[in-house]
Amino acid sequence: MTEKTLFTALVTEEQREAYTVRLEGAEIPAVVTGKLQGEAAGRLDFPVVGDEVSVALHDGGRKAVIHAVLPRTSLLLRKAIGTGRDAQPLAANIGKVFIVMGLDGNYNIARLERLLVAAWDSGAAPVVALTKKDLCQEQELAEKLAAVAQAAPGVEVLCLSSVSGEGVEQVAAALAGGVRCCFLGSSGAGKSTLLNRLAGHEAAPTGAVREDDARGRHTTTSRHLYFLPNGGQVIDTPGIREFCVEYSGEGLETSFSDIHALSESCRFKNCSHVSEPGCAVLAALEAGTLAPDRLKSYNKLRRETERQELKTDAKKRLLAKRKLKSFGKMVRDISETKRKLRGG
Ligand SMILES: Nc1nc2c(ncn2[C@@H]2O[C@H](COP(=O)(O)OP(=O)(O)O)[C@@H](O)[C@H]2O)c(=O)[nH]1
Ligand SMILES: [Mg+2]
Ligand SMILES: [Zn+2]
Questions:
Q1: Quick check: is 326 in a domain?
Q2: Which residue CA neighbors atom 23 of ligand 1 most closely?
Q3: Whose CA is nearest to atom 5 of ligand 1?
Q4: pLDDT confidence tier of residue 220, bands split at 50, 70 and 90
Q5: Does 196 share its domain with 85?
Q6: How far apart are CA 90 and CA 245, in angstroms?
Q7: Could you tell me which of 157, 160, 171 has the C-alpha nearest to residue 230?
Q8: 156 CA to centre of ligand 3 in angstroms
Q9: In which domain, by residue range, is 116 found?
């Protein structure tokens, strides 16, 4: 048997089970090996855009087969609400997550808070990019900026218009130096338009592109890694309609660092900030230093997280039970065989 030569390549596109990998400047269509597919326990074991993978080349280098996914430094996950399906990995090995939100009808603080938790959980640093500044009046802009600052404590906030070009420079600067980034935001936020502005040409399809088919189902839209002229790398994700927080203990704490800091002063360590005496969070609410909506968002996301954890625990228990069952069966099979061998 000849030893296969394996190369390390970068996954730049994912569309269903078809991938594109980049190797020495060439973009090559790729599939995963049957072995990788067979051994994968779930979606997280498959390659995702931004992954470094071991590939073997075929057809004189025109096709690649992915043998393994190399360890990830960060991973952005999405979980669709109520589907009961595994979390879906969106992007790997990213340094920053740009949460893109329009200052038009797309503006939604609750969604921003939700995306921030996912961003913190990914291991990458979040940045908020507010688009469509040209559509927002001065007074309205000031109010929205104040609300965003409150929802995203400690997070860099950029404000821009992809139409006039105002503020796009700051985004380019934040992307420079080869740090791999991901654009995250709901459909219509202006992600692809911003990307094209940064790329200097129509790299990604925008606006008119339907991400749902005629029956309103979500069709598969590929995720793609773009290389910008200034060396920046951006992964554009298709519109996200539902976004549920997954495994967000730490991300939730970081996203709501204001509430977390207050809770350190609550009398009870496991205070739920609902009616407990000596609750510092409720005191801040009373004093007007904490906005009621902010606490509402926090409680909602915390409940979601806890439900998620319960589900994960239940799944783990089930798997453990199955393992135990099959182990028991194996033991019985062995004793059966032994008995037969002994002639009993
Ligand atoms: N006025 C204005 N329109 C924008 C801006 N950015 C995006 N749009 C429009 O918003 C719509 C959605 O943009 P798109 O980039 O496709 O959003 P995506 O779904 O996040 O990729 C398109 O019609 C864009 O032309 C902006 O800065 N100003
Ligand atoms: Mg888009
Ligand atoms: Zn409390």
A1: yes
A2: 207
A3: 132
A4: very low
A5: yes
A6: 13
A7: 171
A8: 28
A9: 75-211+219-236
Verify whether ligand 1 is closer than 6 Å to residue 221 (CB atom).
Answer: no
Could you tell me if the CB of 114 is within 6 A of ligand 1?
Answer: no
With a 6 Å cutoff on the Cβ, whether 238 touches ligand 1 is: no
pLDDT at position 151 over 90:
yes
Are 195 and 321 within one domain? no
Q: For residue 249, how far is its CA from the centre of ligand 1 (angstroms)? A: 33
CA 309–ligand 1 middle distance (angstroms):
36
- Examine the domain organization and report whether 187 and 325 are in the same domain: no
226 and 87: one domain? yes
The tens digit of pLDDT for each residue in 98-137 reads 999 999 999 999 899 989 988 998 999 999 999 999 999 9
Q: Are residues 87 and 142 in the same domain?
A: yes
Distance between CA atoms of residues 39 and 29, nearest Å: 22
- Which ligand 1 atom sits closest to the C-alpha of 196? 15
In this prediction, residue 41 carries a pLDDT of: 87
53 & 152 share domain: no
Q: What is the pLDDT of residues 59-96, one digit of tens each?
A: 999 999 999 999 999 999 886 555 556 678 899 999 99
Element (H, E) at 40: none
Residue 1: inside a domain, yes or no? no
- Residue 124's nearest CA partner among 145, 93, 95 is 95
- In this structure, are 129 and 269 located in the same domain? no
Task: Please name the residue whose Cα sits nearest to atom 14 of ligand 1.
Answer: 190
Q: Residue length, the chain?
A: 344
In short, whether 185's Cβ falls inside 6 Å of ligand 1 is yes
Ligand nearest to the CA of 221: 2
Q: Specify the CATH number for the domain of residue 224.
A: 3.40.50.300
Contact 198, 227 (CB under 8 A): no
Distance 264 CA to ligand 3 centre (A): 8
Asked if residue 191 and residue 114 are part of one domain, the reply reads yes
Report if residue 246 sits inside a domain: no
Last residue of a domain, one of 51, 69, 87: 69
What string of DSSP letters covers 214-253?
Answer: TTSPBPP--EEEEE-TTS-EEEEPPP-S--B--S-HHHHH
Q: What is the pTM of this model?
A: 0.76
Cβ of 211 closer than 6 Å to ligand 1, yes or no, is no
